[in-house]
Amino acid sequence: MEKIKILLAEDDPDLGSILAQYLEIQGFMVTLARDGEEAWEMFRKSAYNICILDVMMPKMDGFEVAEKISRQSPDTPFIFLTAKSLKEDRIRGLKIGADDYICKPFEVDELVLRVNNILKRSGVQDENDFKIGQSSFNFQELLLTTPEEANKLTLKEGMLLKYFLQHENKLVKREEILTEVWGENDYFLGRSMDVFVSRLRKFLACEETVSIETVRGTGFIFRFRA
């Protein structure tokens, strides 16, 4: 399935790189623009499923970029990122047609959830629904439903389960999981990962055909026997 394409416009080079990298870890295809003019030129040359626009940018601010995008492609959703919390700015953004408005600083996980919620409302489908034996998992809702109960997972639990499902019956190395799900290969994050794996095993304990096997010193195999 084709990846969801995001246009990210952020003039802060450090924040822009962090956001782009994190969104790519979640499976999105991200194009990063460093100012408003560059963002508009990129949008004119390619189609995007959603745009994330910083409000305060050189050459052309986020509001102006959004107005141009709305005129050319009225159905394209967009989110504003801003350091301002002024009521006037929020009203202006909503009048332009913003689907969401996030004030800095914010948690990157929150941005991912808001992007997924907007894509769901917009009818854009991603690889988010999985069948696991008699159970099902919806990544957008972070909902794991088994024959015994329904569990609302944390974002990291959901990301880890999705990664396992995308690599079903394959050995995945610890460092690969840490890099893809947590964003870095770190010893202490590895200890945290082991806790998350244990929780997923508990959630899926009722599924006799499913197991998460530990390959000592190497990684894990999400084993599914049909």
Structural notes for this entry:
By secondary structure, this protein is of the alpha/beta class. The protein has two domains: 5-121, Response regulator (Rossmann fold); 129-224, Winged helix-like DNA-binding domain superfamily/Winged helix DNA-binding domain (Arc Repressor Mutant, subunit A, Orthogonal Bundle). The chain is built from eight helices and twelve strands. The chain has a five-stranded parallel sheet with strand order 2-1-3-4-5, with helices on both faces. The protein has a four-stranded antiparallel sheet with strand order 6-7-8-9, with helices on one face. A three-stranded antiparallel sheet has the order 10-12-11. Helix 2 (36-45) runs parallel beside helix 3 and helix 6 crosses helix 8. The longest helix has 17 residues, at 187-203. The chain is elongated.
Overview in brief:
The chain is α/β, with parallel strands linked by helices. The chain has helices at residues 13-25, 36-45, 62-72, 87-96, 108-121, 155-166, 174-182, 187-203; strands at 5-9, 29-33, 50-54, 78-82, 100-103, 129-132, 135-138, 143-145, 150-152, 171-173, 210-215, 219-224.
